[in-house]
Amino acid sequence: MLSLTRAARFQWISVVVAVLAALAAVLTAPSSAYAGTPGGAGGGTVRHGLSQPDYSYANAIREAVWVDTGLDGDGDGRTDRVAVDIVRPSEPAAAGRKVPVIMDASPYYSCCGRGNESQLKTYDANGNIVQAPLFYDNYFVPRGYATVLVDLAGTDRSDGCVDVGGPSDVRSAKAVVDWLNGRARGYSARSGGHAVSAGWTNGNVGMIGKSWDGTIANGVAATGVRGLKTIVPISSISSWYDYYFHQGAALQDGPEWLSDYVESDSAHANCAAAQQKIIDGSPRSGDWTPFWTARDYVKDAGKVRASVFAVQGMQDLNVRTKHFGQWWQALAAHGVERKVWLSQTGHVDPFDYRRTDWVPTLQRWFDHYLLGVDNGIQRQPMADIERTVDHWTTDRVWPPATTRTTSLSLSPTATDGLGTLGTRHAGPGSTESFTDDPNLWEEDWAAAADTATAAKTVFTTGTLAKDLRLSGGGTFTVTATSSTTSAHLSAVLVDLGPATIRDFLGNGEGITTLATRSCYGESTAGDSACYLDTAADTTTVDHTVFSRGWADLGHYASLSHGVPLTPGKPYTMTVQLAATDHVVPAGHRLALIVAGTDGGLILPPDTTPKVTVDLSHSVLRLPLVGGSGALSTRAGAAPRGKAALTPAPAPSVAPAARLG
User: Fold this and answer.
1) Quick check: is 471 catalytic?
2) Which of 223, 260, 455, 654 is 20 to 30 A removed from 38 (C-alpha atoms)?
3) CA distances from 65 to 43, 68, 150, 167, 193 (A)
4) Of residues 246, 323, 347, 588, which has the active-site annotation?
5) 30 confidence band (pLDDT: 50, 70, 90)
């Protein structure tokens, strides 16, 4: 063996020590965000998988740019420009480093406000933004992101006309993504001005927003635009037909009301022709027209390049879970990376029901998909579900892999209007009937689930011997005859048993706003990062409606063209039930209520029919975790109460008041 001199040994040991020290430094130092490479954080640091607030919010660059959409929606002879308000850190820009973008495109920045406190944009004397609604700028700009707030076409400081989720809405936001990636033109003024480029960004864009804002994120993702890396749609529409109709049954007034509500004064003056196109394209017949095809993002799920972090209130009666369910299913079919939070709230932002978990989870998501940080968020459980109030569980995949579609039959009992739900098939000729009463709604029906009444039929399981979990969307295939030329159907799933739930029918839709505040990010004199705290608003109930579906029987053959019914003739139709994830506990019962107009949620038909259901040709199919073996009931008859059918107040569905 070759020996080393003392000096050589010392030199060799010194080299080893230096190498080990360098390695230790690499292993223990905060990981960098790979400055200078695509997805870099502008040189910022990352600790424990999260970007750090290295930059000054007070010294952030604030500017306004108008991006050319290439459209002339208001017909003034020049292409429309949409207003883009930007807040971005100054330090990366000074060093020549590029940053990614968090973008919220909205029609609400001047008319209605955003968030629980209805914040509006405010500006300084130079027209640069002072208050940017919500916490995104306060929190993420110090962490190396730019925030970009876009006024949709026809709103606030933008040109053009609102077209309620159509090509103008979507293109006005897509054009900004294109501009951020060097593919569209931006200017320093609404008209004239000089050209402005977005050389400060690396082009990585994440879109976020609740309701209409998140809807636009869905729509832009469905164009397949390059540079859009992720979207976070919160209680958002996936097909505008399904906001205004449910299988032919009208849910509320037409989209022209909503466009009129959010349009700016200049758009009101210039968009009469565009408004008439909305009216002409969306007849109240319930028929699917080309207008709705242009606003259906589900059909284009195969174009989506972005990852999707969807958030949905399972008791949202505004943007109902049908939107989330069909979007999720389509994304899954095309292998899109995705994650979901499902809460027990109504139309509520997660910042207002799970704030301390939401902010770091959202940050971890954006850090991974926009900064390129390998923090493992994509390997964490796919779904977070609020099982009981403020108690959350997770699933590795959603729906769980053991979920199976299970068929349940409807059978009569000795009492008309009260039947059973299970595996026993009804004999030929078995029927149940109800007479439509638009003055009643699902809460009235569920409160009287064990009482025979003229306006509904109810089918219940026996008392459950073990918990029964439904995960996903079900269907109810019904064969029915109407006594008149029109009929609407409602199919409602109810958990019969006591529970404490979020009061989703209350003013806060499951939350109450407190007087205290908590802070997320940095504040300036004009834009506070401190927001009113919230807490769960709960109520104790003896039943919980957890999924529903509606249909116009005249659209049994096609959504494209409804027809008058022939009285006494049987028609078969499959009613889609909204996606959910609900556990009916052991000791409770599962009920299916079949009725007519769900008052306050769908509009009544033009007649008041008596509808007869052929039980032997009707079936309920539910996504049960564990399949048919999961349904286990105790021996003995299910209890029957004597609840009175007193009409309960139904929710308002005025579109402008409810969409945002």
Assistant:
1) no
2) 223
3) 25, 10, 10, 21, 10
4) 347
5) very low
